[in-house]
Amino acid sequence: MTTPETTAAGTRPVDNDVVPLKHPGRIVAAVILLALAAWFVIGALTNSAYGWSTYLKYLLDKRIAEAALHTVALTVLAMAIGIVLGAVMAVLRMSPNPVMRGFSWFYLWIFRGTPVYVQLVFWGLLGAIYKTINVGFAEIDLTDALKNFFVLAFVGLGLNESAYMAEIVRAGLQSVPEGQTEASKALGMTWWQTMRRTVLPQAMRIIIPPTGNELISMLKTTSLVIAVPYAGEIYGRSTDIAYAMFEPVPMLLVAATWYLVITSVLMVGQHYLEKYYSRGSSRTLTSRQLAAVTDAEGVPPTNVKVVGPGTPGTTDIDNKENR
């Protein structure tokens, strides 16, 4: 079918070629940003104060690598405590029992209202506060147990994190409509079956993104465990080496590089985990609807499934329903 070349009455006018709108301001801004980035990189590479030779020497040092393993262990153990205890506190916060609600509120008030550094200092002094515990029929000596600063470090971080995870879990559970729970009860599901099969799969789409952020934040918060004092993680170990050589800048760059690498790995894992739990949130559009949405938003949406004539995996019923 040919397009009419005239605009006489009764004929459709010739389609105009769409010319993209030019944005010279964006080009100028991009050039300025690239110039500033190049200026900073070149200046840093030629500045002897950064100590690049020392940086390259200690980047893969065995002591730093072992400290990275300790950092990951602190992060995983602290987040495990935070997630489990946070879920318990979230359930208590939503309990109809006023005592349980009050206990949960007080717990969150204490751990969210005081700085994590102050809490870690307190955990480090716990051995001086509680030397023994009297349980009535026996007296337990805590001197040796409270000398393990690694345990005190991840317990202190985990208890602090649980206060934040409690609010994240509570927000995720409350985002699921009440009708979902009622429908599950009508089908004869128990409370645990309702949570496992109905509520949690839908709530995880809300819980996963902020939990991933908390995990990355926890990785960097481990640098504060020097307050316990525990110096076996990345920042503590690199600081010890820097003090011995009197070169703090290159060792800080070494620590920053290791944090960036581990954080990047965690971000990749978070991306695929979010993608897994967002499977049920995709929209079904026809090719015409997809084109309209793309024109309106400027970019094609990512959470869509295209249906229509000729699209694999679609039926005539699907096509009729989406017309």
Automatic annotation (TrEMBL):
Limits of the ABC transmembrane type-1 domain: 68-272
Gene3D superfamilies: MetI-like
Residue ranges, annotated region (Disordered): 301-323
Residues spanning the membrane: 27-46, 67-92, 104-126, 252-273
Keywords, ordered alphabetically: Amino-acid transport, Cell membrane, Membrane, Transmembrane, Transmembrane helix, Transport
GO CC, any one term: ATP-binding cassette (ABC) transporter complex
UniProt GO BP: amino acid transport
Compartment(s): Cell membrane
GO MF entry, a single one: transmembrane transporter activity
Chief site of localization: membrane
InterPro entries named in the record: AA_ABC_transptr_permease_3TM, ArtM/GltK/GlnP/TcyL/YhdX-like, MetI-like, MetI-like_sf
Record's keyword annotation contains Cell membrane: yes
Entry membrane topology: Multi-pass membrane protein
Family affiliation: Belongs to the binding-protein-dependent transport system permease family.
PANTHER family: L-CYSTINE TRANSPORT SYSTEM PERMEASE PROTEIN TCYL, MEMBRANE COMPONENT OF AMINO ACID ABC TRANSPORTER
Protein name in UniProt: L-cystine transport system permease protein YecS
Organism: Corynebacterium provencense
Lineage of origin: Bacteria, Bacillati, Actinomycetota, Actinomycetes, Mycobacteriales
